[in-house]
Amino acid sequence: MTCTNDWLAGYLKAWETKAEDDVRALFTDDAEYWFRPNDPEPVRGIDAIVEAWQEPEPGVPVPRLAVLIENERLGIIKGSVDYPGHETYTNLWEVWFAPDGRALRFVEWYMTPRAAGS
């Protein structure tokens, strides 16, 4: 298993449990979490990231995610996340790693499906 696969498995666990310890295991104390790449500012620092993870979601997510490519500093994850009855998102995630395998910087790129006939 690779660093990015390990990290993704931890992310999926934390996403399900929302447990503070699970979220803290993923990110460095000074990590940046970009919910969108063009946000004016990221969520910065582990305490703010833990707090952001407690916000309600539109339903129970059904992720289909896999590692696309990685090296020792960067993992790229691709796939989709379905919120049944709400929306399905196509995702590409950047995970910039610290030497200990936690994320220093996480950037989420996502798209919604095209409307029928577009």
UniProtKB/TrEMBL annotation:
Source organism, top-level taxon: Bacteria
SUPFAM superfamilies associated with the record: NTF2-like
InterPro entries: NTF2-like_dom_sf, SnoaL-like
Domain SnoaL-like intervals: 10-64
Name this protein carries in UniProt: SnoaL-like domain-containing protein
